[in-house]
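Please produce the structure of this protein holding zinc ion.
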Amino acid sequence: MFKTFAVGPWTVRCDAAATRAVYAAISKRSPEECGCSGCRNWLAVAHRVHSPEFLALCGRLGIAPKKEAEVYECGPADSGHCFGAWWHFVGSVEAGPRWNGQICKESVLMPYGAVSLLIHEDDGLVPDTFGDQKTVQLEIFAELPWVLEEESDA
Ligand SMILES: [Zn+2]
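Below is the modeled complex.
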């Protein structure tokens, strides 16, 4: 069942039950499959992203926060390293600022707990499990500590 609600400046229409069913059928976690230093560091520090606020949003959308579609690192930042990650949910964006195609600080972002959010329909790497359902991309950016002994290969 679709519900329409606001997330920051965006109004989204979301079928959380359909999204939950998709995540239940997804077994892989992209940063575990990738194995690059950025992904391994993400796995070590991802709990910092999982604030009660962010987990509540994921719950509302039906997203499993530990089943990221994609994770990437974009180098050193003011505090730690800059990371991006995204997930999808079944639905559409009804209103709100459009993504300008830029990543990180040049983009339309909304501070949300420990992360910044971006919601758009220019989906990438949508898991096949979503089938023909229309999806929205929930994207986050966060500055996270680098905890690996080795240097980043970003
Ligand atoms: Zn990686």
